[in-house]
Give the backbone structure.
Amino acid sequence: MLQNYITSLTKIVGTLGPKSCSVEIIEACLKAGMSVARFDFSWLDGEYHQKTLDNLRMAVKKSGKLCAVMLDTMGPQLHVSNNTGNPIELRAEQRLIITPDMTKQPSSQVLPVKYDGLAKAVKKGDTIFLGQYLFTGSEKTSVWLEVVETGGADVICLVKNSAVLSGFIITIHVSQVRINLPTLSDTDKQVICDWGARNSVSFISLSHTRHGEDVQELRAFLKANKLEDIQIFAKIENVEGLKHFDNILNEADGIILGRGNLGIDLPPEKVFLFQKSAIHKCNMIGKPIMVSRVMDSMTENLRPTRAEATDIANAVLDGTDGILLGAETFRGQYPVEAIETVGKICAEAEKVYNQPSHYKRLVSSILESMTHAEAVASSAVRVAAKVKAAMLIVFTSSGRAARLIAKYRPVLPVFAVVIPRLSANSIKWTFNGTLQARQLLGVRGVYPILASPYGGTTGGYSEEFGLKVTLEHANSVGLLKQNDKVVIFQKIRDSFVVKVHEYV
């Protein structure tokens, strides 16, 4: 019955783009299991993304499926603007010049990039990757370069493999070399204040996060623009970010492991170590983490490779909260099938996830410093397992209680009833809670329901009424049947309590 309503407990983020922008395709993606829609501002402009987002809203209404919105910043990424869109053919062993001279037209001999510090940053023997999708999945359209020498502001490179560069935007990544550009660019700030604020985005993915200070800067910027409720996911995709991971994790609301660039910055044999370490650290403090670049082959094929399927399953077994699909849904030929496939793989892995081991490890690591709220939340998960509950219900306003429950990785779905809070500004009193509900769509196993502020009473919200509505909803979608047990976690006055309820 779980499969009729919930694809998997692991969340799926889909990047919307040219192959996934219509109402029909987005609706199919939602029904397939997408819970967060990502808009990548490294590609295309705000006008294009707005049309796609408007289509997403229509798809949400038609499908009845909730979906959060993630804005992905550009960050300090170098691009070659190929305005003509004509393919550029490069052959192995030829020389190629990368220049800051923007009067030059992109060709097989020279590529202009809007950054005059590259020649000072690199040295002979350094590695540069070049392509529309870089060198980790579409090798026929990506190039590996070796720096031969620098001449003034130009960088002369040796082409190591033959390829044809395509597309209007060609990305440049210099392996393990710091590009002296701000993590949060002026363009990013403008997009956040305009597109992000107008569309009430749930998350900002801060690309190329290198230090905890990067997250602090973005958070201060959001606060200054009255957008402080937006959550920040730090995207780790270079060695510098890995070196400062603990500090970044302390500052961010969540982590995205961007394995595309990370797989270039690190030797391939090292990536899995950092992935396992990052997931473990996030699990131990209860912050969500997502893994990207999982099924490159499904950009052009209907099925993933066996290695990719195993990779996704292992990420779930390690404890990831979500799988982020990029090219697979943005430009891939099979965006809906990619989401369906990820959901099926995650669901199979969840069946054999060692939750008792995770629970014991987590409790033992924080036993001395455990708060009352966390002690009761962990008990709720244990009770749910003991009584073989069909689901767990938590009442929350900020989402914190639901995250505490999710931290202990229950093997059953967690329905978070988000109670709206009354807030005031200089103009009027309003209820909020919609954003907090959507943000829970990025947390493993949590499914939010936004409660009516006037549910069941004339004086305000009634938790009894909220429980009744939640149980009826769960029954209507096949998650709950007569005599099933439900564990309820809620705050009564100043104390958190756990109750077992039998559905009749």
